[in-house]
Design a protein that fits this description.
- By secondary structure, this protein is of the alpha/beta class.
- 33% of the residues lie in helices and 17% in strands.
- It has a single domain, classed as Spore Coat Polysaccharide Biosynthesis Protein SpsA, Chain A (Alpha-Beta Complex), CATH 3.90.550.
- The chain has 10 helices and 13 strands.
- A 7-stranded mixed sheet has the order 3-2-1-4-11-6-12, sandwiched between helices.
- The longest helix is centred in the N-terminal third of the chain and has 24 residues, at 8-31.
- The protein is globular and about 90 Å long.
- The active site is at residue 249.
């Protein structure tokens, strides 16, 4: 093969192209860095363990909901995820999901069936029984039995139908000993945002809740987290089958704190980092027709 002779002009063009490529690669790496809040959360050392409790039950969207939630948990290394199923036994669906997400070592799978004799007082047919009471209490028992008052931790009730920013867990890391952290929640209670109200000294004096504002703590389950030592100090702090709809948050918080002791987070409650989005019930009319014919669209497939 003959020798290749490059003219000076060709050499200059090659050098310029090479420099442009190097600059492009360098700039791309800079632009693709993880967000600041993620880089901070990724440092697990010296962070409290966040025990995130998720009650769940079998329904068509269960796996989709938990899959979305698992992607958040993956990004926050100091979260220990406690999934409690409303069933007699844990399911292979949840087990498989945790295995595929690589979260087996950072999770606990429990089951606690809601007793059928408990009925919520009220006229709303969609609230025939308290939701999540037995499951959340089972998780609280597990936490109290497997941790001590000297462990650094935070307990958060992370329902599977909400949308969470990774930044929210960064805020939970700031919760002080024997305190309850609070923050705004988007799209809840008939409002764009339901939030704590602070005075000039940044002390929580109330909430802007529109639905049942007379509640002792009129906030959503997604809007607070409790320091682990408080739950050890107050073993009577649990949820109850006897309270009205919307009073579960107040039921547990009344045992562990008072309004003025709440710790405002999320930029002094000026940022929304969690949304009460819920999931639309899927329309499965065709599936129902198949079922009546003794068939299904998902034979052998976990959906």
């Amino acid at each position: 093969m003959g020798e290749i002779h490059l003219r000076p002009r060709q050499i200059i063009i090659i050098v310029v192209i090479f420099v442009v490529i190097i600059l492009f690669i360098t700039n791309t790496r800079q632009n693709c860095e993880f967000p600041k809040y993620y880089r901070s959360s990724a440092r697990k050392d010296d962070l409290p363990t966040i025990f995130a409790i998720t009650p769940t039950y079998y329904r068509p969207v269960q796996k989709a909901e938990l899959t979305r939630l698992s992607h958040v948990v993956m990004l926050v290394p100091n979260v220990h995820w406690i999934i409690v199923e409303d069933a007699d036994h844990t399911s292979s669906l949840v087990t498989n999901l945790l295995q595929r997400a690589g979260l087996v070592e950072r999770s606990t799978q429990l089951s606690a069936k809601t007793p059928t004799q408990f009925k919520l007082q009220g006229k709303d047919p969609n609230w025939s029984k308290p939701r999540g009471v037995e499951q959340r209490n089972a998780a609280l028992r597990w936490i109290r039995e497997n941790t001590s008052k000297d462990d650094r931790g935070v307990v958060y009730f992370m329902d599977d139908d909400n949308a969470y920013s990774v930044e929210l867990f960064e805020e939970m890391n700031k919760i002080q000993a024997e305190r309850v952290g609070v923050w705004p929640v988007g799209l809840v209670g008939g409002l764009m945002v339901e939030k704590p109200i602070l005075n000039n000294e940044n002390i929580v004096t109330g909430f802007n809740a529109a639905w049942r504002p007379e509640r002792p703590f009129p906030l959503d389950m997604a809007g607070f987290a409790i320091s682990l030592d408080l739950l050890h100090k107050r073993p009577e702090a649990v949820f109850s089958f006897e309270v009205e709809r919307g009073y579960q948050e107040s039921e547990i918080l009344r045992h562990v704190t008072v309004l003025k002791e709440l710790q405002p987070l999320a930029n002094l409650c000026k940022e929304v980092l969690v949304w009460h989005t819920r999931t639309e019930k899927p329309k499965l009319t065709e599936e129902e027709k198949l079922r009546k014919a003794g068939k299904s669209s998902f034979d052998g497939i976990e959906v």
